[in-house]
Amino acid sequence: MNIVIHDEDLHSLDQDLKQYPTSDWETFKQAYTVSQMKMNSKDSLTCMQYLPDLELMSHQLDAVQKVLHQMHGRAILADEVGLGKTIEAGVILKELMVKNLVKKVLILVPSSLIRQWEIELQQRFYIPAKAKHRSFPWHAYDVVVSSIDLAKKEPHASEILDQEYDMLIIDEAHRLKNPKTRNYQFVKQIKSTYCLLLTATPIQNKIDEIYYLMSIVRPGLLGDKQSFKRTVRTERQDDSQAIQTLVKQSMIRNRRAETTNEWTKRDIETIRVDFTKEEMEFYNTLESLNVNHSFTSLTLQREICSSREACYETIRHSEWKDEFKNELMTQIEQLPHHSKALKTVEFVKSLNEKCIIFTEYKSTQIYLQWLLHQNGIFSVTFNGKFRKSKKDWMVQLFKNKAQVLIATDAGGEGLNLQFCNHMIHYDLPWNPMKLEQRIGRIHRFGQTKDVNIYYMVLNNTIDERVLNLLYDKLDLFKDVIGELDQILSQLGINSLEQEIEDIVKESRSEKEASIKVDHLFSVISDSEVERNIANESS
Amino acid sequence: MNQAEIHEFLVQFFYKRQATIEYNEQGILRVKLTEELDKRLMNRPFYWQYVKKIGHQGEPMTVTFISDENKKDEKGEWIHYGSPRLEQLFQIILEEGKYTELYENNPSQDRQPLHPWFVCNLLVRYQGAYTHDEMVSVGVYLINGTMRFKMMDEILDQSFSTIIPDLCYKIPPIISTKRAVLMINEEIKERIEMKSAAFAEQSNKLYEKEIKMTEQLFQQREDDDGELLKENIEKQIYDRLYPKVHLKLVNCGLFYLSETQSKNMMSIS
């Protein structure tokens, strides 16, 4: 019979007996029952009893079971953004560790996410993960988190390739779609018994990409390169689904629309503010400015809708004549406190709960913090220039002490702030994806409360125009927002924001602008539909 | 073990290991550790190294454990099934309870013999197409080699002590423990091979399929690093899917049973 029995424990038993001190009956019995408690039975998820605070959504539980029991621990996790791939990977890893099948683990993620993975594994899964640091070699810890960019460099690469890992996890694995890159070559050589690749976009452009990802997870499943290409060709002709069927053997892909989970609600409220007379006058001055420069009066209008400081800075750094600059700057200096800022402070006070304020401008960020402080409200700031440790510290402060976090968009990526459920958009971003990314910080897996979103809008200004032009239409493409990036690059649009700014600038009437925005949006959602069709048929 | 049982477990654990229990209400337990427990649990080797070096006694830490959901906000360490701390305590128990020599407590006033049994508890793990554990508890009568299974279940409710009771005397074993271990090993292997046919077949099938896929993939390739890559893949497939059984020792020991009990064990095997 083909079966191996490992009985090393029994062989070493005789010599060992005398070295153990004699235990009493109670402890002996306890050791027996503890071992019984830790037993695994076929096709069960043992680790869940160790994670009492973790509640899995049904699609996540499904994914975990499939990967463990049908795919035997090697798979591509390709759920859409925000469905909790990390959680799935964490549970799978935990289960394999609890079952003693996995001890040495290498986790490669984008460097911005290293800390997050480390914390998540430690706090949520009680897995002693350790971010790689130059003070210790790769084999010093059992569970190491690092980035591919670091790992592929010497001397790290050879050190890693010398190891025999039990489990390899790679986040954002679509970076491995090109077999000619060093990333791919490197990852393919890593020795590991179990393997998980995480990506929200297993196929970005070409069907070949799935072939290469699968070659890491389950080499040979899709045949060799030639036979794969042949299958693709015949599939196009006779419309068979051979490849999809095969891929499904080792890939999980849940779509947001298909998951049965009920997401908490999103309430959106617009808070309207009027400029004071002085402010409105200055705003009108800016609107009528006839300047021909790299930045336009539109920029200045948007800035003055945020804070005097934001506008002031831009003017100060402009290349205009000094007299002209000075005149505008003096005018700004004489303006009272910003109406929108005052209203925001008042609102935060009345809210009396944790909230996040997003602004586009750093000067506004500082101004708001100062103003909140004047009103006895403790706030922390957050932006992309902060070092990792400072970011962590700020989030910690926000969680435990401060009422308000004031963030700029650059700092927002990868932040998990689901302990907060109020978000104020102090400035409205002109790019809907930015908005979605902001909201995604709090409206994500783990959020238990309904999420409240507030737009701060100044009446009769560019704020209001954007609100009418853009925000009322956001529903039109709420389904594609997660993949907007790729769609735009395929359409050759570099910056949606620029596109919208051009429309606002060049249109002679509100009506014209509105129609143009409609067109833009419909192009985008059409192309998403096409992509989906292409995806399904592949 | 459920959450409500943890408190009692902690009390027993620390009481038994001479820690001072300073405060005890359901769900909250404050204990001052002993030096030994502090060294095992608190992970501060430098502190101990330092105080010893300067000739001080050292002060073990006082820790508060919270095991009631409703008292989670109190100051202390939240402890639940699966928390690393509880895991540490389990490890201590597993280590301390590895081996024993025990004598059956017997109320009888007469002089009487105690019969030697070797008891061995093993975790049998099947690993391949799936992972499945079984606990096997075997006793071997060290006089004539009679073997019986489910041994622990039989003696779990009995009372034993580490010192031989008054008026009792040991019958010296004829069979060595070494020999007993060999017998157990042989018997268990035989039983495993008899009952694992389905498991072996299912695993082998999966294993063969993956190996075949790999062979086909490398058929056309003749480059050098291909061979190494293929070896890695084959190893990975073997480790995951090939049917394996691990015999893991939980604990074992010498048990001296009264005549009636010993006969009892031999009659129902």
What is the secondary structure topology, with strand pairs?
The complex is a heterodimer of chains A (538) and B (269).
Chain A lengths: L3 E3 L1 H4 L1 H4 L8 H13 L20 H13 L3 E4 L7 H14 L6 E4 L5 H12 L3 E3 L11 E4 L1 H4 L4 H7 L1 E7 L11 H8 L1 E8 L9 H10 L7 H14 L3 H7 L2 E2 L13 E8 L3 H12 L8 H8 L3 H9 L5 H12 L5 H13 L3 E5 L2 H13 L4 E4 L5 H13 L3 E5 L13 E4 L6 H9 L10 E8 L3 H8 L14 H8 L4 H11 L3 H28 L1
Parallel strand pairs in A: 2-7, 2-8, 3-5, 3-6, 4-5, 6-7, 9-14, 10-12, 10-13, 11-12, 13-14
Helix pairs in contact in A: 4-5, 13-14, 14-15, 15-16, 15-18, 23-24
Chain B lengths: L2 H14 L3 E6 L2 E5 L2 H7 L3 H9 L8 E5 L10 E2 L5 H13 L2 E6 L7 E16 L3 E11 L5 E3 L1 H5 L4 E2 L6 E3 L6 H19 L1 H23 L4 H18 L2 E15 H9 L2
Parallel strand pairs in B: 3-4, 5-11, 6-10
Antiparallel strand pairs in B: 1-2, 2-3, 5-9, 6-7, 6-11, 7-8
Helix pairs in contact in B: 7-8
Organism (chain A): Piscibacillus halophilus
GO molecular function (chain A): ATP binding; helicase activity; hydrolase activity
Keywords (chain A): ATP-binding, Helicase, Hydrolase, Nucleotide-binding
Radius of gyration of chain B: 26 Å
Cα shape of chain B = flat
Number of helices of chain B: 9
Low-confidence stretches of chain B: none
CATH class of the largest domain in chain A: Alpha Beta
Strand arrangement, major sheet of chain A: 4-5-3-6-7-2-8
SS-based class of chain B: alpha/beta
Largest sheet of chain A: 7 strands, parallel
Amino- and carboxy-terminal Cα gap of chain A: 42 Å
Major sheet of chain B: size, sense and barrel closure?
7 strands, mixed
CATH superfamily of the largest domain in chain A: Tandem AAA-ATPase domain
